[in-house]
Amino acid sequence: MINLTLPYPPTVNHYWKSTVKRVAGNKGRVITRVSDEGKAFAEQVFWLVREQKAHKKLKADLKLVIHIYVPDRRRRDIDNLSKSLFDAMQKAGVYEDDTQIKDYRMIHSGIVKGGKVTLSIEEI
């Protein structure tokens, strides 16, 4: 089992950024990429995973229990946090691919200044 403490992730709305690339004689093409905020979060997770010695590249199916500590009292959809969190942990080498996550539970666990996430990752 791996236990991790990570920063509060950006929502899906802030993780991705869409821009329109104009092409002569065409309406343009929408290009979606990871935002600067998303890249900064992924890099921070990378170093925290190394620091916590959790870069195991797990290969089996996984079960996650995620405790979300929100940064303030605003109403939030905690389901909106999973994609950026899962992608960042994959890039950091916790597991090979986020398709390995077969069971996860997200629990709203209170308010902490700045927010944070604690995770338990178990092979099943």
Describe this structure in words.
It is a single chain. The protein contains 3 helices and 6 strands; from the N terminus they run βαββαβαββ. The protein has helices at 12-15, 36-51, 82-91, and strands at residues 2-7, 16-21, 29-34, 62-70, 101-111, 116-123. It has a 4-stranded mixed sheet, with helices on one face. A two-stranded antiparallel sheet has the order 2-3. The chain is globular, with a radius of gyration of 16 Å. It starts with a strand and ends with a strand. The relative contact order is 0.30. The mean pLDDT is 90.
Structure summarized in a few sentences:
It catalyses: Endonucleolytic cleavage at a junction such as a reciprocal single-stranded crossover between two homologous DNA duplexes (Holliday junction). The chain has 124 residues and is α+β, with helices and mostly antiparallel strands.
Secondary structure topology:
Blueprint: E1 2-7, H1 12-15, E2 16-21, E3 29-34, H2 36-51, E4 62-70, H3 82-91, E5 101-111, E6 116-123
Parallel strand pairs: 4-5
Antiparallel strand pairs: 1-6, 2-3, 4-6
Helix pairs in contact: 2-3
Sequence of secondary-structure elements: EHEEHEHEE
CATH superfamily: Holliday junction resolvase RusA
Report the total helices.
3
Find the count of extended strands (DSSP E, 2+ residues): 6
For the largest beta-sheet, the strand count, sense and barrel status come to: 4 strands, mixed
Question: Can you tell me the residue ranges where pLDDT is under 50 for at least 5 consecutive residues?
Answer: none
At CATH level 3, the topology is 60s Ribosomal Protein L30, Chain: A
Please state the overall shape, judged from the principal axes of the Cα atoms: globular
